[in-house]
Amino acid sequence: MSSPPESASLRELQSGFARALRESASAVADDPGAAFASAIAGDALPGEARLAIYRNNSRAMFAEALQRTYPVVRRRVGAEFFQRLAREYRAAHPSRRGDLHWVGAAFAAWLEERMAGTEFAWLADLAHLEWACEEALLAADADALPLQALAGVPAEQLGATALQIVPSLRCVSSAVPVWSVWQENQPGRAGRPIDLSLGAEYVIVHCDRGTLVLHSIPDRNFRFVRHVAAGATLAAALEGSAHDLEGLQRVLSWLFNERLVAELLTPAPARAEACGR
Amino acid sequence: MTEAASSRLRSGALPARAGIGLRSVHHAALLRDRPEVGWLEAHTENYFHDGGPQAAALERAREYYPLSLHGVGLALGSVDPLDREHLAGVRRAVDRFRPALVSEHACWGHHGGEHFNDLLPLPYTEEAAVHLARRVCDAQDALGRQILIENVSSYVAYRASHLTEWQFLSAVVDRSGCGLLLDLNNAYVNSVNLGLDVERFLSGIPAGAVQEIHLAGHLRRRIGERDLLIDDHGSSVCEAVWGWYRRALELFGPVPTLIEWDTDIPELGILVAEAHRAEEHLRRALELAA
Questions:
Q1: Would you call A207 and B108 a contact, using CB atoms and an 8 Å cutoff?
Q2: Do the interacting molecules here have an ipTM over 0.85?
Q3: Which of the four CATH numbers 1.10.10, 3.30.450, 3.90.930, 3.40.50 does domain A142-277 have?
Q4: Chain B interface disruption, residue of A9, A11, A14, most B CBs within 10 A
Q5: Which of B48, B70, B155 to mutate to test the interface with A (most CBs of A within 10 A)?
Q6: CA B58 to CA B63: how far, in whole Å?
Q7: Which residue in chain A has the smallest CA separation from B47?
Q8: Domain range B3-289, CATH architecture
Q9: Higher pLDDT, B222 or B166
């Protein structure tokens, strides 16, 4: 590989620098970092050693951003293994934005493949939950309606009414007790191992007035919330979740009490009524 | 009083006082205690999103303090196309929080679609100055306002560079009409790492363009057979940088000054005490200017 001449254009120079920074740069025999180092004025410290500072910085920035989004995954796998995961993940999904918040967007899906067939396959579910937390924390704020707002909907329109859920709500289900793992690994908690055979958990995540909130709720309620959040009418959500009317009342009360409903979307009035004829 | 100092007193978008960086670990203490600092600086990228606790805290802090928004991710010097999506995020943050100043860096950071999320140094060439100035103009057009460009710290000097750092920055200012954010720690780091002559640097940059100063700490590390300063913003300002700060105030008059502390962030009180030390210097500069 030829090195950029002293008169290297800006494009050539950035291209060479970028090759030297990439994750694989220090691992290949024909080291692009060494080739590019000749474009750098050296003294007692050669160009390649100076480039290595940037390579390490870039790697560390990426890993720190990933760690900020996935602190529980990191705690469960340990710092050293997390660094290894971060390097592998970065090679597959390098940062595409100047805003580091998005670096971890594909991490959970990547972990699903990376851990498939291993005893750590469940870590992908934990990562999905942590990404849901990240999204909830960045979502738009919205005022919540009180339960009394439902009283204004005529009984005959209730089934056709949909609820606009607050933008921060996320639904995460897992065959393992992922909410329990998350809780046990919060700062100040011991981080004791959770018995993964305890079974599935269904988690609702949202951000309420600046505070992240997680609920582990029964399967049936979870299905109802997920249907409602997807825009289903209350009748359709009821059918999809196999709730009875008493269960419907309980889960609706819960949704409003947890400040998760932003708006009621009542059915449009019939044309004749709408036109006032 | 120098001409630069005189224009500063008249324009002064931010007060000529010391400010601190707004960091999430300090939100509660800052909003509760409202310490006596002149203004706040926040990283623009933390406010690209529609809601959440970060934005809510800045909304509240904004009621009590003037604000500067400081971007770290636009990478204006990159030869890749300008990231319009990122720029739109800056615009949304600017429209929402109405900062007195908006700043970015004289650097590049992405290539071939990959972002390195670092402030990578540009070669000091006419070509790079023209390119950066054009991108600064694009950003200023999109934001509908002037931005400041910060001099960056560096661990490399390119053989291709044929301008000095101050000639390079002056060319960008001349061509784009941007202002300068003078980071004195970066200049000092470059003096140790690359042999930059800080006195000539300060004398060479356009005095009237300097609208904000950054002060920060760095890490000294032995690499190979040489000491290098790593610009980690993880400690208090060193005495050498305080010395250059006094010199900068002589040259430029009282300029809004930020204490930057981004890693190993201390308690809020330590940061505020550091800001008060800068305020002492600013007060003397104001007295001299008066």
A1: no
A2: yes
A3: 3.90.930
A4: A14
A5: B155
A6: 9
A7: A138
A8: Alpha-Beta Barrel (3.20)
A9: B166
